[in-house]
User: What shape does this take?
Amino acid sequence: MAKITRRQLLRTGLAAGAMVTATQCARGTPNNPAPGPTVNTNQIKDVTLRFIGTGVSQINEIRQKAEEDLGFKLEMRALSTEENNQIAITQPGQYDVFDGEYFSLPLVVPSGNLQPVDVTRISAFDKIVPIFTTGELYNGAKVNSSQGTAPHRVMFLPDQESTEFAPEPTNWATLIPFQYNADTLGYRPDLVGREITSWGELFNEEFRGKTSILDIPSIGIMDAAMVVEALGLMTFGDKGNMTREELDQITQILIEQKRAGQFRAFWKTFDESVNLMSSGEVVLQSMWSPAVTAVKAQGIECIYAPLKEGYRAWGGGIGLSKNLSGIELDAAYEYINWMLDGWVGAFLGRQGYYSAVPENAKKFMSQAEWDFWYEGKAAAEDMIDPFGTKLESAGAVRDGGSFDDRMGNVVVWNSTMDEQTYLVQKWNEFVAA
Amino acid sequence: MRYATASTSYDYLFHEAVFIDIASHAWKRVQLKNIFIQKIFMFKSWKSVEPYLLVTPQTLVFLLFLVFPIATIFIVSFWEFTGYSMTPGFTLDNYRNIFTSQVSLATYLNTFKFVGLVWFFTLIIGFPVAYFLAFYIDSLRWQIILFLVCTIPFWTSNIIRMISWIPFLGREGLLNKLLIGIGLTQQPIDIFLFSDFAVVLAMVHLYTLFMIVPIFNSLMRIDRNLIAAAEDAGASGFQVFKEVILPLSLPGIAIGSIFVVTLTMGEFVTVRLMSGGQAASVGYLIRNQIGSLQYPLAAANAVILLIVTLAIIFGILRTIDIRKEL
Assistant: This one.
């Protein structure tokens, strides 16, 4: 009766193997060991932190430098803003560190997939630009009363367990910022032929069929709001949190513009905006700072226009997965401290982004670089981007001027609204119209 | 060895009883039939089980990677969702939303427009190409070489293809420069790029191959004697085509049409890139909804899209018997 066939033996062996593997997984894999009481500092070399983030910051040079300085490994995944949110919300097991934007937080934080960052473990936390903490940059700055998902509104949680935002600073942060910028319209001076000074120009008939807008609802809607407000077509209670009626109205205006042929195309990724601009298909469009530098790097003139109504800004930072603990958590904190230490800030600064701790970034920038990017002074020497491409010749001045001029004039941030579902629905109507 | 609970020991006893029953049955059989017949019987039962065993892996793959995901999509389409999460439940809101919205109606109509145009152009381009390959190229080597030429559109990625259309169709592109150069137009023509025209052009460019291959296949199967016979009976070239070749190539056209229709119905990358994000298709709508985490709504749309596509395929299969081909 107890005759064991070869097949049975195989089957039993496989089942046993599978069981052993399964129990091993429950105990923790080499990449993601289960919490253990022993913390051996040498073990940190075996740690691999898995990042998800948008292509803007998932840069190989940063990873290499971090691995060199910190001794553990980083694994980076560059995603679109949408994919980044999707994974953050629905696949908490796939990442250790979430590199995302502040306007994603009203979607991501309620999922409970992030654990708050203990700010007492962040050495440079007190030096972080106050835009992120109190929301006040300097007296009288427009940014102090800016609308939308401003970072300081979603920066803190009341306690470690909470998934609701705290109105004022606490010791528990959602994201630790490391990059942000003031966005505006970019244009080709050679094809436009004059200076652009208002958001309203995007709907100017002069540029019919030669403009483009960003096809990411949370960002595109804010650009559209800046335009219709500048033209006096609409007023808003709060641009960053529109009502259904306001969304109906603004979508109607956008659809009319689209039907009249105002837009050449919509863009979703950085590369698309660069192609549209450098090919001359579009002469005026909403743009991101590195896209402008990419166009310039091709030898084509492109201006990132300072507009009288002010800027639309965004901010990005690092958040921790709730799955992190023990030695991985320590490694993640080490990374955050390293990130704020200045090398990253200087690296990203050479592309036009600002560092969360400018004084630290300054240590890693030349005086000429600092003067050009932060002070708005004429470049004392050629400006070279982090990848070795020349961006500006000596004598050039940054569009929009100094840090205070640019960030101080932010009036609105990328936003997730209470009526987010309705916004997406209306945005789809606009795209389909 | 009985440290089981009461219920499992009962199960054990039950199994034992069944086993004894089977065993005694088998014993009777051994008594009744001689060893030779029994061997034949065993061989036969293996023969009857064999096909089932052979299809088992395929069936499992099919269940796991096709039936299960579709079932999941179907179930999720009845779930509820908020801005950032979905909750199991049963609501018809998603479907109600789709059927009452002007946007989805317009989007479906736009998708049908693309399907109709792409189908028409792939057919009128694909058929002559297949005809040429089947009747005018005698050497197999040249047929293969020319087939490879047809696959060139697939050698590049979508994004590269999109970028490479710009210098050709764009405002400062070759085509516009040519038209201005020969004086046909003064102003560059905008509708070449980022328009419905561009979308249809790119999809025809991509999908004509899927029309060529099945039509070529059915044309190659036409017995050349039939054509000779028709000619002998006095048919003109056009009559041969109309009465012999076209009817016999219908199964190929049907299969090609199924390919083109299903590919175009679900298309979103080409639509987005070539229209510059300005045209809508159902696939693109679903993609946008997934992008904003509205999974249940996207699932409901996917279910409807699947039903509509299957209905079209069903219609094609009702009109033309493709089994003639197989």
In short: Residues 20-39 of chain A have pLDDT under 50 and may be disordered.
